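Audit log entry. Action: structure prediction of a protein-small molecule complex. Ligand: fe (ii) ion. The ligand was supplied as SMILES and no pocket hint was given, so placement is left entirely to the predictor. Protonation state taken as written. Sequence taken verbatim from the request; no trimming, no tag removal. Recorded inputs:
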Amino acid sequence: MNSIMEFMRQDHARLDGIFAEFGGVDVQSVKARELFSAYKNGLERHIAWEEEILFPVFEEKTGNRDSGPTAVMRMEHREIKVLLERLYLRVENGDIEIKPIQERLGDVLAEHNQKEESVLYPWFDQSLSETEKQALLDKIKSSTAAP
Ligand SMILES: [Fe+2]
Ligand SMILES: [Fe+2]
């Protein structure tokens, strides 16, 4: 059985893993820069999958576009991207003062992912046919929507 929840939850977990690994290395090391860029690229791609492939289906089928959960998720994505960009600049500059941004990003994402996993992703699994879910997963897997 196809599951949007399984696929997207696994990507949350994969990204959380990279973020945690990043938190454990010397922030001024090459390894830190490598991990952070893998993290940033992966998270931006994940957000693009949601905003460009998944959310439009929810919005189309429910007619809930401007005031529903996807509107809230899109707003949170904007904050996440700002934090990612700020952190990226600091890591690239070898700045060691990253803790507050790192913690804020971790907190915002934990809450954000929790909402997606408890409200939004289950909607896809419950409301779409196997064929529709398969089509979305194919689209996601072949997507080059983000870096
Ligand atoms: Fe999201
Ligand atoms: Fe997500």
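Audit: result stored. Residues 50 and 141 are 12 Å apart (CA to CA). Residues 30-62 form the longest helix (33 residues).
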